[in-house]
Write a structure and sequence with these properties.
Blueprint: E1 6-10, H1 14-24, E2 29-34, E3 45-49, H2 50-58, H3 62-68, E4 70-72, E5 74-78, E6 84-89, E7 101-105, H4 106-120, E8 123-126, E9 130-136, E10 139-144, E11 149-152, E12 154-157, H5 164-168, E13 176-188, E14 196-201, E15 204-211, E16 216-224, H6 233-244, H7 251-261, E17 265-273, E18 279-280, E19 283-285, E20 291-292, H8 300-317, H9 323-353, H10 360-372
Parallel strand pairs: 1-2, 1-12, 2-8, 5-14, 12-19
Antiparallel strand pairs: 3-7, 4-7, 5-6, 9-10, 10-11, 13-16, 13-17, 14-15, 15-16, 17-20, 18-19
Length: 375
């Protein structure tokens, strides 16, 4: 019998919901508290690498993901005018029977995971979060934002890069800006977009796009980080439109969509790496709450999903919950995650510094080889 009978997961992102599915289907009572009121409508587009697909298959949702997403096995490199410079076969890091990459609408992935978590028996509770935690030797007492309270064997902070759970347990790590900002739009997919294509050059560090379904895609432009708190939607659309004028090809079809979409998103690239252990007592951090990286390697969601898989394995196999369990969890994950975070940040730094002789292909091969191994 598992050493845990009830678990609270704070945050209904990919890592939190994955953990909920794995624990609930093994008979553990799981509550998932999500501060937003619509837990299955978070975000726009997401790029899911093969090692993440491997975890999604373990969760039993691969067929749904494959049906709604857009799979591809190569990466295109283009000149600013849109002409193709190279087509690079992508590594199938999840194994030969899974595609290298799937682009997907993030709300559709969230809906799949929420539905699967509930079907497994987990309670997903939108509009609820944790106000305070009181730890005991054998669990944690939780006071919720609605005034209710409950006691859990383990509490999992899966509440993102600005995790309130992380602060509550006294972990003082904070995200660090990398110096880049990304403009994103989710829009219709032109017929010629069948994989991720990237442009290095022109007015931005990166101009790229990724198909997310039969009719949809997301496109993005990466430049130096700028203050953006006071930008209106019109300002964001105007700036992204102006940046896009440096690119041809598919960008000529994307450009008219930017002004009318009403949903141009701008965020900074940030990184975070919590030194071990990732727990304090019976409260443990996973996903972006423990580690986060700029999307230069598209490994953020994958690493969070791997956290969920490893933590579930350890919790369900344990006879007792003690520090050795959490130490084993951190030991299984830390070096792999550190390599991904540091490599992602290094790729961004090379671009910011204009390094022309950087071994980008070599770094990408090393990371692909690492994440191809089981976590």
């Amino acid at each position: 019998m598992a050493a845990v009978s009830n678990v609270l997961i704070v945050g209904a992102g990919t890592s939190g919901l994955a953990l909920a599915i794995l624990l609930a289907r093994a008979g553990v009572h799981v509550d998932v508290a999500e501060i937003k009121h619509d837990a299955d409508a978070l975000g726009s587009g997401i790029t899911i690498q093969g090692n993440a697909l491997r975890v999604l298959r373990e969760l039993g949702v691969w067929e749904q993901v494959a049906k709604l997403g857009y799979a591809f096995d190569s990466l295109g490199m283009r000149a600013p005018d849109g002409s193709l410079r190279a087509e690079i076969p992508d590594v199938r890091t999840g194994g030969p029977d899974l595609p290298a990459t799937i682009g997907m609408n993030r709300p559709e992935l969230a809906a799949i995971l929420v539905g699967s978590a509930r079907a497994a028996g987990a309670r997903v509770l939108p509009g609820l979060t944790v106000r305070s935690l009181t730890q005991h030797r054998d669990g944690a007492e939780v006071l919720f934002s609605d005034g209710g309270s409950a006691r859990y064997d383990v509490v999992v902070g899966a509440d993102g890069i600005r995790s309130a759970t992380r602060r509550m347990i006294g972990v003082d790590a904070e995200p660090v800006p990398t110096g880049m900002g990304i403009w994103r739009i989710h829009t219709r997919r032109p017929a010629g977009v069948e994989r991720t294509d990237l442009v290095y050059g022109g007015p931005c560090f990166i101009a790229g796009y990724c198909p997310t379904g039969p009719d949809t895609m997301y496109a993005y432009l990466v430049e130096r980080a700028r203050a953006h708190d006071d930008l209106t939607e019109r300002d964001r659309a105007a700036h992204m439109t102006e940046l896009s004028r440096g690119y041809g090809g598919v960008w000529d079809e994307i450009r008219p969509e930017i002004a009318v979409s009403g949903r141009v998103n701008y965020t900074w690239f940030e990184s975070l790496l919590v030194e071990g252990p990732w727990n304090r007592g019976r409260v443990v951090l996973i996903g972006d709450a423990a580690h986060a990286c700029p999307p230069t390697l598209a490994q953020g969601a994958a690493q969070g999903l791997e956290d969920a898989l490893v933590l579930a394995e350890l919790l369900l196999a344990a006879d007792t919950v003690d520090q050795s369990l959490f130490d084993a969890f951190t030991a299984r994950r830390f070096e792999r995650v550190r390599t991904v975070v540091e490599s992602s940040v290094t790729l961004a730094r090379w671009q910011l510094d204009g390094v022309r002789d950087a071994d980008v292909p070599g770094m990408m091969r090393r990371v692909s080889a690492l994440v191809s191994e089981a976590p």
